[in-house]
Design goal:
This protein is mainly α and 326 residues long. Helix content is 77%, strand content 0%. It has helices at residues 14-41, 53-67, 71-78, 80-104, 109-120, 127-133, 138-150, 152-164, 172-196, 198-204, 208-226, 228-259, 264-275, 279-289, 296-320.
């Protein structure tokens, strides 16, 4: 998640901080992968759970709100140009890539809408920690992720209507309501609780990433179980779409930072803020507005973007430590 939930405390030594962050990005994709396998192997165990996905996402977003402080918004005031560039790059590159990939691969309407919806979602919940591991600009990463999430009710539905409307009917108004209920209101509730009871919240901050990880894993298990019958025939094509979507997003996000001359640390942050998506939100919206099959790209993205993010972050950190740098 964002802010303190994913970024190790500055009071920790560099060694313990790196260890904690690496543990997070190692355990999380393994947990999500195991959940997906469980949903695939015993789909009947999750029958009827689909209606719980929005509530589970609300738990994740509430945890995000609990970890946020006014410091997360200061970067917007200090560097509005960089944050604005991150937002524009995120909401132009990923939706555009989703549409292009859906057309290039000739995806079915349900899968095409699912891929596009992933692209229209806000920044991913693990982007901050992989930016930290990559020795990127964590403050910029937190600012872009926070603002992209807050603006999601205004941006995600119309973008989905514009790009996925040719495949399936999109009720943008209903989608706005769903994002407000499952994303913005829980985040605001978390912020209020942190403001009123910060002393008590601080005591449980260490448990919040694990609660979020378990909740996201549950979402993935439910989504995979709902489309288990179709996975065998579509899995390879979906993985190719996700691989291209995420990989090109990371590369183009980094390139946008370089073209804008933001500097190497900020360019690394841009890579992850563009290439990593809130696939939990995409899965929830796809399940509610399209079908379980349309949520399949979100489930695959949930696993892959954490794996690829960790690998790219390790490569960037190693390259940064070399004499040549970025």
């Amino acid at each position: 998640m964002q802010s303190e939930q994913t970024i190790p405390s500055q009071s920790e030594g560099p060694g313990s901080a790196d260890k904690a962050a690496r543990r997070a990005v190692t355990v999380f994709p393994v947990l999500v992968l195991a959940a997906g396998a469980l949903g695939l192997l015993v789909p009947d165990a999750f029958e009827g759970w689909g209606t719980n996905v929005p509530y589970l996402l609300g738990v994740v977003m509430f945890c995000m709100g609990l970890t946020m402080t006014p410091l997360d918004f200061q970067g917007v005031v200090k560097r509005p140009w960089a944050v604005a560039l991150g937002l524009v790059a995120h909401y132009v590159i990923m939706p555009g890539l989703g549409w292009l990939i859906a057309h290039a691969l000739g995806l079915s309407p349900q899968l095409a809408a699912g891929v596009i919806l992933v692209g229209c979602a806000p920044s991913g919940t693990a982007s901050n920690v992989v930016t930290y591991l990559a020795r990127g600009d964590v403050a910029l990463s937190v600012s872009v992720a926070t603002v992209s999430t807050v603006l999601a009710p205004l941006i995600t539905p119309p973008l989905t209507l514009l790009l996925a409307g040719e495949y399936l009917p999109v009720d943008a108004g209903s989608m706005v309501t769903d994002i407000l209920k499952t994303v913005l209101l829980p985040v605001l509730a978390g912020l209020v609780v942190r403001f009123l009871f910060g002393r008590y919240v601080d005591r449980v901050l260490g448990a919040l990433p694990w609660l979020s990880a378990l909740t996201i894993a549950a979402i993935v298990a439910i989504v995979v179980a709902g489309s288990a019958a179709a996975i065998k025939s579509a899995a390879a094509l979906v993985f190719l779409a996700v691989f291209l979507h995420n990989g090109l997003g990371l590369a183009l996000g980094y390139g946008a930072g370089k073209l804008a001359r933001l500097g190497p640390p900020a360019s690394r942050a841009m890579a992850f803020e563009v290439g990593m998506q809130n696939s939990g939100l995409a899965a929830s919206l796809a399940t509610a507005h399209f079908s379980p099959l349309a949520a399949l790209p979100s489930a695959v993205f949930s696993v892959w973007h954490n794996v690829s993010g960790a690998l790219v972050a390790a490569w960037m950190a190693r390259r940064n430590s070399s004499p040549s740098g970025d």
